[in-house]
Each structure stands twice: as C-alpha cells, then as structure tokens.
Amino acid sequence: MTVERRDVERIAELARLRLGAAELDRFTVQLNGILGHMDQLAELDAEAAEAEAQAAPEIGAPLRADEGKPDALRRPVAEIATDWRHGFFVVPRLASQDRLAEGGDASALEGIDGA
Amino acid sequence: MAREPAPSLDAIAAAVLAGETSAVALLEAAEREQARREAADPPLNAFLAFGGEHARASADAADARVRAGESTPLAGVPVAVKDNLCTLDYPTTCGSRILEGYVSPYEATVVRRLREAGAVVVGKTNLDEFAMGSSTEHSAWGPTRNPHDAARVPGGSSGGSAAAVAAGIVPVALGSETGGSVRQPAALCGIVGVKPTYGRVSRYGLVAFASSLDQVGVMARSVADAARVTAIIAGEDPLDSTAALLPVPDYVAEMQSGLDGLVVGIPDEFFPDELDAGMRAACEAAIDVIRATGAEVRRVSLPHTTHAIPTYYLIAPAEASSNLARFDGVRYGLRAAGATTTEDVYYGTRAQGFGDEVKRRIMLGTYALSAGYHDEYYDRAQRARALIARDFARVFADGVDVLFTPTTPTTAFLIGENDADPYRMYLADTFTVPANLAGVPAISVPIGTAGGLPVGGQFMAPMFGETAMFAAAYGLERALAGGAE
Hints:
The complex is a heterodimer of chains A (115) and B (485).
Chain A: H1 5-14, H2 21-38, H3 45-53, H4 77-80, E1 84-85, E2 88-89, H5 95-102
Antiparallel strand pairs in A: 1-2
Helix pairs in contact in A: 1-2
Chain B: H1 9-17, H2 23-39, E1 47-50, H3 52-67, E2 78-82, H4 109-116, E3 120-125, H5 159-166, E4 172-177, H6 183-189, E5 192-195, E6 215-220, H7 223-233, H8 251-254, E7 263-267, H9 277-292, E8 296-300, H10 308-323, H11 342-353, H12 356-369, H13 375-397, E9 402-406, H14 422-426, H15 433-438, E10 442-450, E11 453-460, H16 466-484
Parallel strand pairs in B: 2-3, 2-4, 7-8, 7-9
Antiparallel strand pairs in B: 1-3, 4-6, 5-6, 5-10, 9-11, 10-11
C-alpha cells in the first residue's frame, strides 16, 4: 500500500497539523518508507485467526472488581472552576469570538442566557 | 571510560542520617558536576532545568527532616526526573516547544514518593520530544551527548536521565518507557535501567504518549540502587486506576539469592546473524558467567519477535495521535500568535509547537486509525501484539524464570547517523520493544564494552516477576565484578 501526497494532506487535516509543501513531500516519502515495513504483519493473519479461535492463556495484569464508588468530586464544580458562568466553564476568548462580537451579534456567552 | 566505584544509595542516605554529609552538601556537589559538564565543549545537555531555589529549598527541607529525627530511605539523595513527569516546582516541557514554560498544577505520584522518601529533586532531564525517539536528538532544546563519547547519542528517549547518572551528576534518575526508553539509554551509557511490569508503578503525572505501553522506570549505577528506588515508587495509587493492587516485595532483600537455581532462557531470535560482533561476544561471555553461577541456561524461542517493531510502530503512534490531540493551543502552553479562527489556533499551534518526529508519529497513527486503513494496520498490529505476548507466556509457563538477551543491537551510534531514515532509528528498539508489548518487566545491566563503548544485557521476567528479574541482574552484576577483581 502506498500513500500519495493527497493522502498525506488528508491525514494532516485529520491530525490538525498544518504542513508546508516541503514537509508534505518529505512525509510522503517517509511514511511510504515506514509503512512498507508494516506489510510484513499480513503474514500473521492466518495464525492470529487460529490463535483467537483457541482459548487464550491467562495473560495480562490482574483486574479489580468492577464496582461503583461514590463520586470523589464532592465539591460543586462551580466552586473549583477558575471562571464559571451560566453553568459553563469560561475559557480565554478566541479571535473568532472577538470578531463575532465586533460584528454586532450577541456574544456567545450572552446567547446562552436563556438556557 | 572506566566505571568509578561510587557509593550506593543506602550508603549516601546513611551518611546523611549520621550527619557525615547533608542534602545541601550533596546538592552542591551535583551543581558543581553539572556546571563542569555544561562548561565542556560540547556541553552534555542532560538537563532542561537544574538546581536553583527549588532544589535548595528541597534540600533544606530534607536536612530539616533529618535533624527532626526522621529516618527515610533516600535521605538527602539527589535525584533527576525526566521532563515528562509533572513537578510542582520545575516546568514540565516534554522537550517540546508546545509546552515551553508549562508548570503543572499537580505532581506525579512517583515524584511525590521520592520526596517522601527523603530525596531531593535537583532537576528535569532532557528527552526526545514527548518521549518519541531512541537518541535524545529530537528535543526542542538540542541533543544530549553520551558521557562516554560526546560525538555519540546517549540513547533515548530518557537520554538526559541516563547521561546525568553515567556522568555522576546524580546517583539515580527516573525515566519513562514506551518501547525501551529507559533500558536502551541505560545500555548505551553503561548504567542499570529498569522497566517495571505494566501496572507496577503509578503513571499519575506522567504525560501520556501511548497509554497501553507507558511505564515509569528507574536508572541507576547498580542493580541494588535500581531495586531500592523501584520498591519506593511501586504500588497501588488511588490516582491511577492502572496501578495494580498488589503488594510490593522488598526487592533488595529478596534478590540476594542471585542467579543460583534460576532457569535462564536464551531466545534465539534476539541473536540474529546480523547482530554486531562485539555485542554478540559480550553477550556470550555474559551467558558463560550466568552458567558458571549455577543457573540453568536453556535455549528458547519467541517466534514473533521479528514482528515487534512494525507492531509497536503502529500501536504506539496510534495511541499518541489520540493522546496528543489535547495539545491544541487552548489548554496548555503555546498558542500560535496571529490566529484569527479556532482552526487557526489548532493548526497553527500544532505546526509551530511540535517537532518533526512527533508530527511524523501523529501522522502515522492518524493514518493507522483512519477509516479504510484501521483493519489493515491498527487491528492487525493488535493481533500481532497478542501473539507476541503469548510467546512470552508460553516460555515462562514452560519453567523459564527469566530471559537473557542483548539490550540493543549496537552500541551508541553517532549523532545524526540515522537522520535520513526514521525506520533505521526505530530498529534501535528491536530488543526492548517486545517486553513493552507483552507488559513484562525488564532490566538492562552493563555487561562489558565493545569498541570501547558500553554494552547492556537484558533480563526479562513474567508479569510482576520483578523479584526474579532483580535477582538475576544482581547475580550477573556480582559475578562480573568478581571476575574483574
């Protein structure tokens, strides 16, 4: 399986990474180089299916009983939040919200007053 | 570089408790050695943050506890901590621009346990960005050098911790492992490195890379020191649900039996034809010593070992692509300047904040998890991982107590040697990755040199079988020291 430049662009978009043209070219070559080595795992498909069909030996870390416990967060969230309004955490403004406010629209925060 | 005899942690703590030295005096000695190493050309660059008022206050507090009559196992001992473990005093950057200047609001459980045991945290050590690498070249603040040869890497990703211990700045340091990041640099720097069983040590406050693999480890000058500190940091933690609810044995007391009576498996797959001749010679000499101590040496097979690297380099990046999604310019550290939309903040911050290797792994992981490729890559790797884990379970069920292998395929390589081919760098983890995939504990212990550079030998044990692992490593260390006398 080979990866093309447009695939790398799409992956970068999914990963929220902005890559320059040179980076895209370089990653296309490198990802192909790396993924080429991964193809060897296809050899294991039949064996893995057979292993899954058999009872697996007991391996892995011991597990505790899956029992519910009282909520450790006994203090109201509003009490520990840095800033809390109308049932929401208030985070630093983003530039896009500033623009929205400048445009005369109600700010995002005021818009939820009725909620 | 000849290994100088150095006092054990027990001896250091005893001297502090007896008033023969103090935490402050030990801190000042560490500061002098660190200054000397940084004045060298090129500098060692083992630390991203060192000393200062935090360390001084911590040393003063340790001395006050001694004066108050408190007896703690690491009284006054200077320790270094990898910079992906959260500390309240020093910044926690993970070697990344994206966390530049970030100070955690909470402290890692392992760091808290060291402080409670009387230790003084003297600084945060350099690492490959977000622990992704095998050479400590991929740090936003430049590479760490190998104390044995400044032209070579110390290994990674815990290269700063390894170099700090090997250079004698501190007697012990914490690192972290995802695919060998404690054992590999320990081997390349000629010290002891421990990766405990997955679940043996709390990961609360360890910045997540690949959550099904990550584990905190210990780097020290001797097996006894490593065992002492492992016992201190291990055990259940209400703040980490993956920390096992199992009692922690007294490893130092229980390892005294050494190799006597143990069955040591030698897996064929870890001695391939292309193994470096010097590595092979050192390992074969060590196997002769193991046999001479009264252990039964048995050839065994872990047939899926050859699939460990591709398996690891799909699973770890897949988990990393998810774990590192949180670094988006909103919650931590860096935020891209000049961003005009929410998307600009995300894309710009991540473009500016992450280095090449981190971007490469996020891309690889995103691809392996993406629609249409999930079955072919991620699912297939998970099935391969199950086969690798089953190999270990079978060998141990057949009566093998510990496995012995080389820790690395080569000695320390040159800085820049693997720049052009990332996969070649990944192969540095060939012998360490299987233990991470299987979740079993493993230790690297110095067994000699090849071409003047340190060689590490590795013992792996069944899950939560640290006692046998430490006993075997201690037995070999003792026998090698006796042979050299």
